Amino acid sequence: MSPDLVTLLCTVRDCRQPLASDERSYACWRGHSFDIARAGYVNLLQPQERRSKNPGDSAEAVAARRRFLDRGFADPLRARIVELVAPLAPKSILDSGCGEGYYLGALASATGAESHGIDISTAAIEAAAKRYRDCMWIVGNADRFLPYEEHSFDVVLSITGRMNVEELHRVVAPTGTMFVAVSAPEDLSELRGVANRDRVQRTIETFAQRFEFVEQTRVSTVVELDDESARDILVATYRPRDASARQVTLALDVLRFTPRSLSPSAV
Predict the structure, then answer these.
(1) Residue ranges making up the domain that contains 111
(2) Residue 180 in domain
(3) pLDDT digits (tens, 9 = 90+) for 27-48
(4) Do the beta carbons of residue 73 and residue 250 sit within 8 Å?
(5) Cβ distance 81 to 253 under 8 Å?
(6) Structural domain tally of the chain?
C-alpha cells in the first residue's frame, strides 16, 4: 500500500526529507533511495542504527509468535483494542513496534484507516507485509526516529514496545490519541511468576511531559495451552525454561493519552 495521507521521511543521516514513491522504490530529492521489497515493505534502517546483524525479534521468535496468535489465544485482547480504537474513526494509524502486525492488521480492517507499522525486526515486518497487504510496513529504529512527518497520525499505538515519547508526540496529531499497552502484572504469571511491580504508574510518569493521561483499561483472558503452544510462547517471549503450566493468563494494561501542546520554550 502506498501512503496517501502520511508522508515518509528519509532516514539517511540527518536528511529527513520527504520520500516519494514509484512502483519499485522510495527516494528523496537528495537522491537517497530505498527499494520496495518483494513482500511490499520498505527497509529504512540505517547501518549505524543496528546493534547486531539482525536486530529485533529473530525469525524463530516471529514464527513462534505467529503460530501462537494464529491459534486464537490473544483474540480477546486484540478485539478489545479494536473496540477502543474504532469509535474514534481515525483516518491514519501508526503501530510503533508493530511486530508481525497482529493488532494493526485488525485495526486496518475494522477502521479502513491508512495504517502504518514500524519495527526493527526485518523478519517481523516481512511476516506482516505478506499477510496484511492493506497496511504500509517499515523496517526502522523507532527508538531513534519515526520516519513520518509531524502530526501524521490520528491514532498512535505502542503495544508492549519501547517508548520514544518525544517521537511519538511529534507524529501524533494535536487532536489525536495515543494508546500504550504494557504487560499487566498477571501476564504469563504461571510461567514467569507475578511481576514485582505494576508498570502503569511508571508509564504514566514517562509520558507526563508530552501527554495527558485519560484512562486505563485492563484486558485479560485465561487460555489452555498444549505442549506446542507452551513452547511457542516461551520462544516468542525469550523465556528459556520448561513450560510446566498448561493454563496461563494473558493480560494487558491499555493506557489512553492525548497529546499536550508543546510550550514555546520546548519547541
Answers:
(1) 39-266
(2) yes
(3) 999 999 999 999 999 999 988 6
(4) yes
(5) no
(6) 1
